[in-house]
UniProtKB/TrEMBL annotation:
Protein name: YitT family protein
GO cellular component entries: plasma membrane
Organism: Niallia endozanthoxylica
Membrane-topology annotation of the record: Multi-pass membrane protein
Localization, UniProt: Cell membrane
InterPro entries: UPF0750_membrane, YitT
Key words of the record: Cell membrane, Membrane, Transmembrane, Transmembrane helix
Transmembrane segments: 31-61, 73-91, 97-116, 128-154, 160-182
Length: 185
C-alpha cells in the first residue's frame, strides 16, 4: 500500500514536471486525456489539470464497475495528477523544442509506467490501455502510443504541423518508457 501511494505521488509529480516544464512552453501534447486537456488549455486557457480531471470522470466510473482496485488508484491518481499539473504550471524550462519533446516524453513515460506498475493511473486513457492490455496480448506501451498518436493528430488544427511532429516524438518516447517501466520494474 505504501509503495502504491509513493508511486502515485511520484508519478503525478513527474507528470506535472514533464508537462509544464517541457511540453507547455512549446505547445506540445502528451496524448490521451492529458493531451486533450492540453489542447483545450491552449485553446481556452483553462487549467490543464482541471480539464484532465473533468475528462477522466467517465473512465473513472468505468473503473468503478470493472476493477475496484484500479478505480481507487485511478481516482486518487486523477486528483493528485490534476493538482500537480495545475500547481506546477508556472514552472517551465526554455529548451530547444526537440530536447523538450524528448525530455518531456521521457519524464511523462516514466511517470505513467511507474503508476501503472503499481495499479494506479491518471484516470485517463492510461486506464483504457490498462484494461485493453489485460484483455489482449498487446503491449500496454503500444496501446498508449496508438491512442496518443490519435490525440496528437486531433491537435493539428489547433497547434499546427510543428507541434504534431514534435508531439509525436514525445509520445513515442513516452510510450516506450511507459512500457519498460510497467514491464521491467
Amino acid at each position: 500500500m505504501l509503495a502504491r501511494m509513493i508511486a502515485l505521488v511520484l508519478g503525478s509529480l513527474l507528470l506535472g514536471i514533464g508537462i509544464n516544464g517541457f511540453l507547455v512552453p512549446h505547445q506540445l501534447l502528451d496524448g490521451g486525456i492529458i493531451g486533450i486537456a492540453l489542447i483545450l488549455h491552449y485553446y481556452f486557457d483553462i487549467p490543464a489539470g482541471l480539464w484532465s480531471a473533468i475528462l477522466s470522470i467517465p473512465l473513472i466510473i468505468y473503473a468503478w464497475i470493472k476493477d475496484r482496485k484500479q478505480f481507487h488508484g485511478s481516482v486518487y491518481g486523477m486528483i493528485v495528477t490534476a493538482i500537480f499539473i495545475d500547481v506546477l504550471a508556472p514552472y517551465q524550462f526554455i529548451l530547444p523544442i526537440w530536447l523538450s519533446a524528448i525530455l518531456g516524453g521521457a519524464i511523462c513515460g516514466i511517470a505513467v509506467g511507474l503508476m501503472l506498475r503499481y495499479e494506479t493511473s491518471t484516470g485517463g486513457t492510461d486506464l483504457i490501455a490498462y484494461f485493453l492490455a489485460k484483455m489482449t496480448p498487446i503491449n500496454i506501451g503500444i496501446i498508449i502510443a496508438f491512442i496518443d498518436v490519435v490525440i496528437v493528430l486531433l491537435g493539428y488544427q489547433t497547434l499546427g504541423l510543428q507541434s504534431v511532429v514534435f508531439s509525436t516524438i514525445t509520445i513515442l518516447v513516452a510510450g516506450s518508457l511507459a512500457s519498460v517501466c510497467y514491464e521491467k520494474f
